[in-house]
Amino acid sequence: MKLFATTSLATALLFAAPAFAQDATTAPTDTTAPTAPTDTPTPTAAPTEGAAAQTADGMEPVTVEMQHADGSSAGTVTITPTPHGLLLAADLSGLGDGERSFHLHETGVCEGDFTSAGGHYNPTDKDHGYMAENGPHAGDMPNFTATDGTAQFQTFNPMVAMSGGDAPLNDSDGTAIVVHDGADDYESQPSGDAGDRIACGVVFAAE
């Protein structure tokens, strides 16, 4: 009887051992730290400096100081950019009386007899004059009349811009406004038989 009890106890321990072993086994743990979800927006590219500069330059008026060959003042021309070209408001003096002409010239230098300003501004290689079949120059503009030596008027030039496009005034050569002592006939080459240069003003100086 004692032997049977001992045998039964041993058998019970034998079958219980796997269960004890299973309970003692440590369950595997995930030691990897959870990654917090991110909600970082994709940065938007900033506008380029060139585009910002172009925008800043877009609508800033420029006042051109006009002068006679002796250095005395011939008044001013204020140039205002628009989405469609340039608006020029002139307030000129010391011009004598009669019909006069003025143009944008290709070089931003006003010295001596003003031939330093070069020819008419013509970056698109056109003929001179509104009446020319292949005209006009980008720098061609209408005549005006001076009375008692003065003239106040406005004109619009849709062919030019301060910067950008086919005819920018602010290029490496700069640009000048030149007043001539005669009327432009709008067809003679290369400059409309407009007479001597009697006033000049630098819009953008040559580099």
From TrEMBL:
Protein name (Swiss-Prot/TrEMBL): Superoxide dismutase [Cu-Zn]
Catalytic activity of the protein: 2 superoxide + 2 H(+) = H2O2 + O2
Species of origin: Aurantimonas aggregata
PROSITE patterns assigned to the protein according to its UniProt record, in alphabetical order: SOD_CU_ZN_2
Cofactor(s) it depends on: Zn(2+); Cu cation
Domain Superoxide dismutase copper/zinc binding: residue ranges: 74-203
Signal peptide boundaries: 1-21
Known role: Destroys radicals which are normally produced within the cells and which are toxic to biological systems.
Highest rank taxon of the organism: Bacteria
E.C. numbers: 1.15.1.1
Keyword Signal: yes
